[in-house]
Design brief:
Elements: E1 41-43, E2 54-55, E3 60-66, E4 69-74, E5 78-80, E6 88-89, E7 93-97, E8 114-120, E9 126-131, E10 134-135, E11 138-139, E12 143-146, E13 166-172, E14 175-180, E15 184-185, E16 188-189, E17 193-197, E18 211-212, E19 220-226, E20 232-238, E21 241-242, E22 245-246, E23 250-254, E24 260-261, E25 282-287, E26 293-298, E27 310-315, E28 327-330, E29 335-342, E30 345-351, E31 354-355, E32 369-370, E33 374-377, E34 405-410, E35 414-419, E36 423-424, E37 427-428, E38 432-436, E39 441-443, E40 454-459, E41 464-470, E42 480-483, E43 490-496, E44 499-504, E45 507-514, E46 517-518, E47 522-523, E48 536-542, E49 545-550, E50 553-562, E51 567-568, E52 573-575, E53 577-578, E54 585-591, E55 594-599, E56 607-612, E57 618-619, E58 624-627, E59 640-643
Parallel strand pairs: 53-57
Antiparallel strand pairs: 1-39, 2-5, 3-4, 4-7, 5-6, 8-9, 9-12, 10-11, 13-14, 14-17, 15-16, 18-21, 19-20, 20-23, 21-22, 23-24, 25-26, 26-27, 27-28, 29-30, 30-33, 31-32, 34-35, 35-38, 36-37, 40-41, 40-59, 41-42, 43-44, 44-45, 45-46, 45-47, 48-49, 49-50, 50-51, 50-52, 54-55, 55-56, 56-58
Length: 645
């Protein structure tokens, strides 16, 4: 989450092109460095408030707050409060009351170019960056401090750009980080990145991190964020070298002590993708509230192995080269231009029509989930949450659909959005909107059962399950047959919190599971109709993933699975395994740090085995048979799950 940051991404300079195109199916192994423990997410309401002002033209690129006043910057020239009949001239920057949307008539700065970035310094002054030459009739190229009440220039603030655009302003403590297309700040040479004293504007000479050499076109840093603890900076944009080191579009800088380029690089933004339309495609970056990870969004077209048109999470503490994303969400060949990570939600905005669309190419592929310009993702697996406001509702004669959501920004009351069209949430919202925390909801942190002892449930016959007490180790109790009239034609099954997910024919069904009783089923999501659950010979859920096997295939697979909406991930991954023949597995579950699985023999009844599982790999050398098949219990049913009741 960023304090005092601005806009998102762009179709190069003024070019506004059609959506970029998308992705391929990925099969790979899990990333082990991240913490995949589910978290509760606080979502805003998808219904934007009716009290934000409207901009008539241009776009809104940046927001800031001081007290009860909200500031908005961009390329607009006229604005109005909600309910006003006429437009008021406000070139590039204005202020309004946070509660009512009424314009602050005393705040009247005069700028001659677009505002791209806003921040608030420790003295409560408004720091403005952008693409302007003069402010209030005085030369202030692209960087200025303003009085927040009147918009008057703070003459004592000495920060100056050489004329190159300032795209980002981030304040951490008394440090002001700026990024853009400049090469000199305060008369000293700084290429695209600099750090100033936020209170005085004086240059910090200890920060000498210089990005340079554009991929094509002009070099610049377009997106920037600094971790909440002030220890790590990540910048994205059109560059290939930083302090002489190869860093293509993305660089991490360690800020503790003397700032230095970190031993962190990724190959995923090296490919040109559609370079004729997109000289660069890493468009925006934002850290999580705790700083443990950051998310990069991109446009750029389509290329195998590249993160064009994606949303990707990376871990802050990871170091090395050729680093892959912890997870990657593909749009299916559409652009993502802004990201804000707040309250355990990854908000994304842009010119996309779907998420979870790794199988699509400018169309909805198997697994695609409709999301028209806005989406909210689970930070654990990158799957879309149930939040779909859409970039829609523009009245006739206004702009219905634009290429760019320039900014998503977490203010005190919700997520502010700045964009280049006139509709959001199926309502008129001229170039800006606020998704409020009021009226939102909390998605709980749910997982597989984490405690033992409990019970293993085994498929018996239609309408029945065999129930055995299980201590989570190697001890099983006496089996009993439990009537379950709601569970008919069941295949693979697993528990997530208080619900049983189970395969029926080819559908993923959901039932409440209360006190050992399976409730009436419903089909989890219409977005899953592409996925044939009957192919699974066993399955379990753990930490945002559905693990499963297929009969005759010696592989442990997984897909992401989102409990908020019950949707299945479009991409299939494999878990490194040795010493276990997963092709013989029938029934899988997880309990007490182990995969518990049945093995179907060539003759006779199946046995029950366990093998330790840390979420990254399986070593069959530690596998243990804990029960043999008997006349009453045959461990060769795909219906096997663990529950605590």
């Amino acid at each position: 989450m960023r304090a005092g940051r601005s806009g998102a991404a762009v179709r190069w300079l003024a070019a506004l092109s059609v959506p970029a195109l998308v992705t391929t199916l990925l099969v790979s192994t899990p990333v082990g460095a991240a913490d995949f423990t589910p978290v509760a997410s606080t979502l805003t309401s998808p219904n934007p408030v009716d009290t934000t002002p409207h901009a008539q033209n241009g776009d809104v690129k940046a927001f800031a707050e001081i007290g009860d006043t909200v500031y908005a910057g961009g390329s607009f020239t006229s604005v109005k409060s909600p309910g006003d009949a006429g437009w008021t001239t406000r070139n590039y920057l204005f202020a309004y009351d946070r509660a009512t949307g009424a314009l602050k008539t005393s705040f009247v700065p005069v700028l001659d170019g677009a505002v791209h970035a806003l921040a608030v310094n420790p003295d409560g002054k408004l720091i403005v960056g952008g693409n302007f030459k003069n402010v209030n009739g005085v030369s202030r190229k692209n960087l200025v401090a303003l009085d927040p009440a009147t918009g008057a220039t703070v003459a004592s603030w000495v920060g100056r750009s050489d004329g190159g655009q300032v795209r980002r302003t981030i304040v951490r403590g008394n440090d002001l980080y700026i990024a853009g297309a400049f090469h000199w700040i305060n008369g000293t040479e700084h290429s695209l990145l600099a750090r100033l004293n936020a209170t005085t504007g004086a240059i910090d000479s200890t920060f000498q991190i210089d990005a340079s050499v554009a991929r094509t076109s002009s070099e610049l840093v377009w997106g920037l964020d600094v971790s909440p603890d002030g220890g790590t900076l990540v910048a994205v944009g059109n560059f290939t070298l930083v302090n002489g080191l190869s860093r293509n579009q993305v660089v991490m800088v360690e800020l503790d002590g003397t700032p230095a380029v970190a031993d962190w690089s990724t190959q995923r933004y090296v490919h040109p993708c559609s370079s004729a339309s997109f000289p660069f495609y890493a468009r925006d970056v934002d850290f999580s509230d705790d700083g443990s990870y950051f998310v990069i969004v991109a446009d750029g077209g389509r290329a195998a192995g590249a993160y064009c048109d994606t949303i990707a999470r990376f871990e802050t503490e990871t170091r090395g080269s050729a680093i892959d994303g912890t997870w990657v969400n593909y749009t299916g060949h559409d652009s993502v231009t802004s990201v804000e990570v707040a309250d355990n939600v990854v908000y994304a905005g842009g010119h996309f029509r779907w998420l979870n669309n790794s199988n699509g190419n400018d169309a909805a592929g198997p697994g695609a989930i409709d999301r028209y310009g806005y989406g909210a993702l689970d930070p654990i697996n990158g799957m879309p949450l149930v939040w779909n406001p859409q970039r829609s509702g523009a009245p006739a004669g206004t702009t219905n659909w634009g290429p760019i959501v320039w900014e998503l920004w977490r203010g005190s009351t919700g997520i502010h959005a700045g964009f280049d069209n006139d509709g959001t949430g199926n309502e008129y919202h001229g170039r800006m909107a606020l998704f409020p925390l009021a009226g939102g909801r909390v998605t709980p942190a749910v997982n597989a059962p984490q405690t033992t002892p409990g019970y293993l449930y085994l498929g018996h016959e239609d309408g029945e399950l065999t129930r055995l007490p299980f201590d989570g180790g190697a001890t099983l109790g006496t089996p009993t047959v439990v009537d379950q009239p709601n569970m008919v034609d069941a295949g693979a099954a697993f528990i997530v919190h208080n619900k049983l997910y189970w395969s029926k024919n080819s559908d993923l069904n959901i039932s409440m599971f209360t006190g050992g009783t399976v409730g009436g089923p419903w089909v989890g999501s219409g977005y899953n109709d592409w996925y044939n659950t009957a192919t699974m010979s066993g399955a379990f859920y753990l930490n945002g993933r559905m693990y499963y096997t297929k009969a005759g295939q010696n592989t442990l697979y997984y897909r992401y699975l989102e409990p908020d909406g019950y949707t299945v991930g479009a991409s299939e991954f494999t878990v490194p395994s040795q010493g276990v023949n997963w092709g013989q597995a029938r029934g899988l579950t997880w309990a007490n740090g182990k995969i518990v699985y049945g093995v179907k023999p060539l003759l006779g009844r199946g046995d029950l085995w366990t093998v330790p599982f840390d979420g990254t790999a399986v070593d069959g050398a530690a596998a243990v048979r804990i029960a043999s098949g008997t006349r009453d219990v045959d461990w060769s049913s795909p219906t096997l799950f663990y529950a605590t009741s």
